[in-house]
Amino acid sequence: MSRRNAGGDDDHPWWKEAVVYQVYPKSFNDSDGDGIGDLAGLARRADYLDDLGVDAVWLCPVYGSPMADNGYDISDYRSIHPAYGDMDDWRQVRDVLHERDIRLVMDLVVNHTSDEHEWFRRSRREEDGYADYYHWWEGEPDEPPNNWESIFGGPAWSYDEARGEWYLHLFDEKQPDLNWRNSAVREDVHGMMQWWLDEGVDGFRMDVINLISKTEGLPDGDPEAGLTGAEHFMNGPRVHDRLREMHDRVLDDRDLLVVGETPGASVADAREYVGPNGDGLSMVFQFEHVTVDHGDDKWTTADVPLAEFKEIIAKWQAGLADEGWNSVYLSNHDQPRMVSRFGDDGEYRRKSAKLLGTLTHTLQGTPFVYQGEEIGMTNAPFESPDELRDVEAKNYVERAVEHGEADCYEDVRETVEATARDNARTPMQWSDDTHAGFTDGEPWIECNPNYAEVNVERARSDPDSVLSYYRELIALRHERDLLVYGEFELLAPDDPDVFAYSRRLDGERGLIVLNVAADATSFDVPAEVDRDGLELVIANADDAPATVPATLDLDPYEARVYLTPSQEGGVGR
Ligand code: NOJ
Fold it and tell me: Residues in domain Glycosyl hydrolase family 13 catalytic (predicted)?
């Protein structure tokens, strides 16, 4: 490949130097007017992605599915859901991306399938070879096997009348968990991965991959320890064996990006997944920094405590600096919009969106940009529960009312609007045309009403837009190894408003200063920072000084990046 994705040796693989763009296909671009985004629609936007400068696309599930969880409930791993198109459309996406040096990473959802998958149908009938494909448990219909809770709320077990047994589902009841102890299951999964690799995919994003191994005997969990049962299924006993086997059989000796989604993983766990002696994953998605504002669960939230947030980021930066590699993200299809959560989606929408982008592109690790983040898309209003589409949000509202925690939707509306996953799933805002230029039909979920102001068309022609800034950030990231590989050091850890850090690689140095507050402030550059030779390379304010003063006067949400000039012959270039 040419201008991007160079990488090349074991220490500098392409995916360390890449910026990845996440596409949630249902909401990206609809080509046929049925209100659902599709692959032909994505192919039409290849130039947009090329122009933005990203190196890879992570495509959320597009496989055969009854869509109980928008495709994370797969009924056929080797076909495309008709609403998205067919395999020819998929190959077209692959080809238009590859022609632009953009790699394609597929979502791999193998902790569970849909209950409409052929394997589950056969298992339910106890057909030869399939009886143990899932976690079944004999018992009375009113006595679930244990007290585990589903991540979507309620018990993690449902009784299947057809088989007369209970089955485990850590998510929706339409998402039964596969039994990874069964070697036939593992072989089927490996075969399916191989099939996609033969189709030319460049990697996998592995959905909740650290949940695949459950404690033998499926014992009760401690109800006081957060999600009940988690200690028996998160980072479970055989998870590393399973991943190593997958690596040896399928992934070894290939130039792939393999990112595991690992809720509840600590730095020590992550090192086992990604470290030099680990399971062969390129990186993981850890959750600590996106649960920092949660109380008992995601529906009880507080303001983001900056000092704690910085400490978490610094811990992960240091923890994987020599052993492994970080992914860097603030948003995805499961999180509220980052500008509404970590920034200010009112007066400072543009400024704070740029600041947050500055953060994700100047940490050590691979930045992931979630669709719409690059134009500063915000959380959406959900005036009635009928506007919600996500099974998790709908369950939450239903249970809150059922359990008497709320009298009606209005009582939980604020919580829903701050936290629901549907915030991230409103249609991509392409223009100020009807339905944001996303579809000619009726969108499957309402557009955010702010699309007249926040849209790609408008941002494209505005040099001061969030989009223009992201383009610059991504280009800068490609130019400077310092930003990719440089050592990270947190400065002024206790400053409640300013997130400042240095980067260092061979003779090159960087200083990044972010005022994560809606008030102006000043920042005294710590004595350990050598200000000499540092020059401003990007900022979200016009009047930022070109060199580093002893004290920086910072406007609300002001972000500045100072680097020493690039030295010839640096690492990787
Ligand atoms: C994590 C995915 O990101 C999320 O969208 C999905 O609901 C669950 N895993 C279950 O597959």
Answer: 22-425
What dotted CATH number matches 109-179? 3.90.400.10
Taking only the tens place, the pLDDT of each residue in 285-343 is 999 999 999 988 899 988 999 999 999 999 999 999 998 999 999 999 999 999 999 99
207 is catalytic: yes
Homologous superfamily of domain range 486-563: Golgi alpha-mannosidase II (2.60.40.1180)
Query: What is the widest separation between alpha-carbon atoms in the chain?
Result: 74
Note if 118 is an active site residue. Answer: no
CA distances from 98 to 31, 433, 459 (A): 21, 30, 26
Which pairing describes strands 165-168 and 136-137: parallel, antiparallel, or unpaired? antiparallel
For the CA of 332, the nearest atom of ligand 1:
3
Best residue among 150, 170, 207, 331 to mutate for probing ligand 1, ranked by most atoms within 8 Å of CB: 207
Looking at CATH, the fold of the domain delimited by 19-107+326-382+420-479 is given as TIM Barrel (3.20.20)
Closest ligand 1 atom, residue 72 Cα: 11
Residues of the chain with CATH 3.20.20.80: 19-107+326-382+420-479
Q: What is the pLDDT of residues 198-238, one digit of tens each?
A: 999 999 999 999 999 999 999 999 999 889 999 999 999 99
Among the listed residues 207, 288, 344, 345, the single catalytic one is 207
Span from the CA of 207 to the centroid of ligand 1 (angstroms)? 6
The rounded Å distance from CA 103 to ligand 1 centre is 22
Could you give the CA distance from residue 190 to residue 213 in angstroms, rounded to a whole number? Answer: 16
CA angle at 561 for the pair 555 and 564, rounded to the nearest 5°: 140
Compute, in angstroms, the gap from residue 112 CA to the centroid of ligand 1.
Answer: 10
